[in-house]
Amino acid sequence: MWCALVLMGRRPLLAAAFVLGIHTPAIAGWILGNDLWSVCKTPPFDECMAYILGAFDTYQAAAVVPTANLPSLCEPKGLTSYHLRDIVIKHLKDNPKERHLGGPLLVLDAINEAYPCPKE
Question: What does R_g of the chain's alpha carbons equal in angstroms?
């Protein structure tokens, strides 16, 4: 979870979802966690990797916009795309009850769970 989430529940995550246009299950055409799990659970991982990196890069790009006011991610320097993929796959595997949520939300949750921000 983001460091802000520790203090304020999931509100920043929901704000990020709103800013990034992350969907609810009622909106057709978006990738849900179950869809992401289906392309990530077995090789080849090309589609899985592309989706995860797209979600991660989109968040990173949006986070630099001052008016977006998105919480920081606290991933370590040197984090590779392969580490990122492994983190997301583990999160999807360990949290099947969350797979009805949007794919981008789950990617961000996985990163924040693996690399929580230090408490201030």
Answer: 14
Q: What domains does the chain contain, in order, with CATH numbers? A: 7-114 (1.10.890)
Of 29-33, 49-53, 80-84, 89-93, minimum mean pLDDT range? 29-33
SS (H, E, C) 48-81: HHHHHHHHHHHHHHHHCCHHHCCCCCCCCCCCCH
- Give the C-alpha separation, 90 to 69, whole Å: 28
pLDDT given for residue 66 in this prediction: 86
Q: How crowded is residue 109: how many other Cβ atoms within 10 Å of its Cβ?
A: 22
Give the SS3 label for residue 32: strand
Q: Could you say which DSSP state residue 43 is in?
A: S
- Among 44-48, 53-57, 67-71, 103-107, the range scoring the smallest mean pLDDT is 67-71
